[in-house]
Amino acid sequence: MATAPATLPRPHSFAQRLRAGDSIAYTITFAASATIILITGLLAYYLWTGSALTRQRFGWNFIFTSTWDPVAGQFGALPFIYGTLVTSFLALLIAVPTGLGAAIFLAELAPRRLSDALTFMIELLAAVPSVIYGLLGIFLLVPLLQSKVVPALQAVFGFLPIFSGTFHGVSLFSAGLVLAIMIVPFIISVSREILLAVPNDQREAALALGATKWESTWKVVVPYAMRGILGSVFLALARALGETMAVTMVIGNTPRIQASLLSPGYSIAAVIANEFTEATNDFYLQALVELGLVLFALTVVLNGLARLLILTTGGGVKRR
Amino acid sequence: MTTVTPTMFTPAPPANESKPQEHSEIKIRTEDLSFYYGSFKALHEITLEILERRITALIGPSGCGKSTFLRALNRISETIRNTHIEGRITLDDADILKMDVTALRRRVGMVFQRPNPFPKSIFDNVAYGVRVNGLGDRGSLKEIVERSLHRAALWDEVKDKLHHSALELSGGQQQRLCIARALAIDPEVLLLDEPCSALDPIATAKIEDLLFNLKDQCTIVIVTHNMQQAARVADFTGFFLMGRLIEFDRTEVMFKKPSKKETEDYITGRFG
User: Is A62 an interface residue toward B (CB < 8 Å)?
Assistant: First the structure.
């Protein structure tokens, strides 16, 4: 009892110290997250003001016309938007089934040691610089496509407009394939983590009802993880939309819209990188900045749609 | 302290059932069942008979092997890598280790410790087993779902929200939903692994009532931490300790006159 008054202030000051710590931590973390808003805002502001000239001159025609002639001062972005979307969706079309399949194998079916070894390699692949993938595309993929794959494709599907025409190696198709190779590791490693995080009692519940291993995986585990898997797909899509180096090396850099995937094309990111140094007048430069604005808007819109899709489907039923 | 107060358990079953062994067939039999996690022997030569349409409770302190034993009965234990079974387990005299595992699990259903509904609607949860086993068309599915929810005493609480998420239900309702889900494929045996350990006393009482009503239709094996629960619901009780079956008898015998010292010590609360 005698010591009680002496010890009383101590917890009090400790509590004060805690409160002070909390407010400092709050300030620091708030500042850190505020930089995100700041950067996004600055980016949008710069892209908007930096393209004022061309926006005034062309208005919406910038997006809806397809003549890109810097010498004549004609700037229509449609071929680049087309090339960006076509290559990105082609990449998703190939990478999503492959990535999901690999993730299911690694998370649910493979022996632990094999899974860990393969995952290590996949994470390595995700860290390879894109210029290396570009080289892989030029020296390995394009010759292979030219000598084996495309002749075979054209023999079977040649009647389809998307596989018509002569193939010169560099093309939308090659760019889509290289992009697919680049984004597949993302989809695998993120989806695998998400599948591994599905509680084991979900698997047991399905198995105990007489489901086979595959039925439990496909009808219970994958739907449970669906939101996260969609998240990984949109992360991959964002990377595909903005990928510059590897695409430039294999897409053919031709601003034209052609139905055939085997014809050369151009993407927004590639044209900005290629022509920035050549942009000798303000007008040309501002047209490139406006292309950047279009790409930025495209990313925002697609991500917004992705959010909407996740919110409305999201495994069928809202969780908790 | 050698006897247990009679208030701890329900009275013995009706007089004409005082010797249930004579009226009831053996549903599951284990012979010298041993279970290994890697090289660790978790169960030591368990020999046990589970009678049809009776409730059998397995009690014992944590880590005694009662859940391991239960999980061997529908071979869900196989999903853990690096485990193996020695000895024999038979269901209606057929060796379950030689059966097709999905066929076995259709006959031997299971309810887990924590309610584990799928993040789907209430209807889809109950329908899952029927659909995955291809056991019903669209019309009969609705009937099966309704009947199963009735059997699990959940119908009145959920009949107006069958298409709501199962995760909106309370913990006790979720556990009864899991029982309905297991019942939907008409299992002959229902295994319950501490089904009430995450529930409050009222939800627990509902589940115990439910088990009592279900036992005319199927054989029930329940693992429980709670001795009063075993005394209340079970016809037979087995006491596990350190991976061994110490004693197995009619519940009232186990709680009134256990023949082994360890059983008596556990039941009277000297350890565990």
Answer: no
**Do A45 and A150 lie in a common domain?**
no
Average pLDDT estimate for A59-66: 91
pLDDT, tens digit (0-9, with 9 covering 90-100), for A163-201? 988 888 899 999 999 999 999 999 999 999 999 999 999
Residue A3 lies in a domain: no
Count of the separate structural domains present in chain A: 2
pLDDT for position A104: 96
The shortest CB-CB distance from A320 to any of B109, B167, B185 is to B167
d(CA A2, CA A8): 11
> Which residues of B fall within a CB distance of 8 Å from A206?
118, 128, 132
Q: Inter-chain contact B118–A202, Cβ cutoff 8 Å? A: yes
Mean pLDDT across the stretch B182-200?
93
Residue A31 shares a structural domain with residue A165? no
Q: Is residue B71 part of a domain?
A: yes
**Within 13 Å of residue A291, how many CA atoms lie on the same side as its CB?**
32
| Amino acid (1-letter code) at residue B110 | M
- Residues from chain B that touch A319, judged by Cβ atoms under 8 A, are 119, 165, 167
Please check whether residue A320 touches B, CB under 8 A. Answer: yes
DSSP string, B178-244: HHHHHHTT--SEEEEESTTTTS-HHHHHHHHHHHHHHTTTSEEEEE-S-HHHHHHH-SEEEEEETTE
Per-residue model confidence as pLDDT tens digits over A89-112:
999 999 999 999 999 999 999 998
pLDDT of A255-289, one tens digit each?
999 989 999 999 999 999 999 988 888 899 999 99
Q: Residue A22 is part of which domain span?
A: 13-49
Total domains present in chain B: 1
- Report the residue of A221, A222, A317 to disrupt the B interface, i.e. the one with the largest count of B CBs within 10 Å: A317
Predicted pLDDT of residue B221: 96
Closest residue by Cα to residue B62 from B255, B265, B241: B241
- In a domain, residue B272? The reply is no
Confirm whether A1 is domain-assigned.
no
Determine the distance in angstroms separating the CA of B211 from the nearest CA of chain A, rounded to an integer.
19
pTM recorded for the entire structure? 0.82
In a domain, B1, yes or no: no
